Amino acid sequence: MKNLFAILALALAVSCGVKQEVKLLDKADFETTVDGKAVSLYTLKAGDLVMQVTNYGARVISLWAPDRNGNYADVEIGYENIDRYINNTGERYLGAVVGPVANRIANGKFSLDGKEYTLPQNNNGQTLHGGTLGVDRIVWDVKEVTESKIVFYCELPDGQDGFPANRAISMTYELTPNNEFAVSYNATTDAKTVLNLSHHSFFNLEGDGEGTILDHILTIKSKAITPVNEYLIPTGEVMCVKDTPFDFNEPHAIGERVNADHAQLKAGAGYDHNWIIDREDNGEVIKVADVYSPKSGRGMEVYTDQVALQFYCGNFFDGSYNNKFGKPILYRGAIALETQRYPDAPNQASFPSVVLEPGQTYKHTCVYKFYAK
Predict the structure, then answer these.
(1) Which residue out of 91, 129, 338, 364 is catalytically annotated?
(2) Tens digits of per-residue pLDDT, 12-53?
(3) Residues 290-335 pLDDT 10s
(4) For residue 89, is it within any domain?
(5) Structure pTM?
């Protein structure tokens, strides 16, 4: 198996004329059984990209992209074997799909049609990314695999982590010839529920473990954020970003203002906020953000049909645990750009709804498009 991976790496290097080979992880290190279901590792390739994913939490494990000189690096923060994801002592959500309601729900409670639902409080008394199990700690069924695409499926039973209804979720990861990593979701329910899925890759455009992302240049198409309290729960207000460190309508280095004297930066220990995208909620997929590394020349555009984007710059990494290459995952060593609807929407009537009813289909598209210049 390792010889097969080496051949693939060499073939990619030769075909693309690169100076550094892709170093694929061994499938055997990800083969196990969880809750009676088989876990494995899958390799996808298209354009200049190579990606490895596992069906445990539908996690992206590695994503290789070339820099301006054609040298490849793995820009996805991750671990080297499945045990480190299952028996996690570091960052739980590396590369995973998160939900059924991404981000935070205040006090682990919400009401629907007058009935209160209680959820696991797994983050300072709040519910984060779906609770104890979520969708990141289940084994997804693999319905289809091609050279460039994998289709995942899961069914969430009524009452899992306290959420109502039986829900069926189909999710596709696809690499395209245009160097895009596209994520698409479809979900249905047999009873009224709430749903707000998102993808939680952590990126460093210099490479996994290659310093911080503070010199990465970020642009976000947004005039406002939803400010948060000390528990990172939205207050219900909308804060204009003009003349604040949260204005990324023009490109700024992430580290330029991250330590500024601003109440919201103190609340989030840096950037960990929801940006309201300047758009209509019409389902159109548009460009909403761009991040670029001047050192490597790698860049990544973000496209989505969603109305908001969570930008998190790794404020809670502390260097105490290592990545897949044995290097520390540094404080502010990665960036997450999570397309979504607003956090705590089930409790905030003024926010765009995350309610899903029988007969409706939840749809969500997120595209990370890589480039080099």
Answers:
(1) 338
(2) 544 444 456 899 999 999 999 999 999 999 999 999 999 999
(3) 999 999 999 999 999 999 999 999 999 999 999 999 999 999 999 9
(4) yes
(5) 0.94
Mean pLDDT of 129-139: 97
CA–CA separation, 181 vs 55, rounded Å? 17
The residue range of the domain holding 97 is: 25-373
CATH number, domain of 353, equals: 2.70.98.10
Active-site residue, 338 included: yes
- Cα pseudo-dihedral 148, 52, 338, 122, rounded to 10: 140
Half-sphere exposure of 280 (CA within 13 A, CB side): 2
φ/ψ of 27, rounded to 5, equals: -55, -35
Q: Which residues pair with 242 in a beta bridge?
A: none
Here the tokens at position 85 are: 């994801």
Measured between alpha carbons, how far is 193 from 179 in angstroms, rounded to an integer? 35
72 assigned to some structural domain:
yes
Count H helices, E strands: the chain?
Answer: 4, 28
CA atoms of 215 and 294, how far apart (whole Å): 8
Name the one residue in this structure whose structure tokens are 């995350």.
354
200 has catalytic annotation: yes
Is 17 part of a structural domain of the chain?
Answer: no
Residue 13 resides in a domain = no
pLDDT of residue 12: 52
Instruction: Count up the domains in the chain and report the number.
Output: 1
Residue-level pLDDT at 104: 98
Strand partners, 104: 128
What is the residue-averaged pLDDT of the chain?
95
How far, in whole angstroms, is CA 178 from its chain's centroid?
A: 20
Q: Which of 199, 200, 252, 364 is catalytic?
A: 200
Query: How far is Cα 372 from Cα 255, in angstroms, rounded to an integer?
Result: 21
| Interval 90-126: pLDDT, tens | 899 999 999 999 999 999 999 999 999 999 999 999 9
Q: What is the pLDDT of residue 351?
A: 98
**Residues 217, 250: contact at Cβ < 8 Å?**
no
89: DSSP letter: S
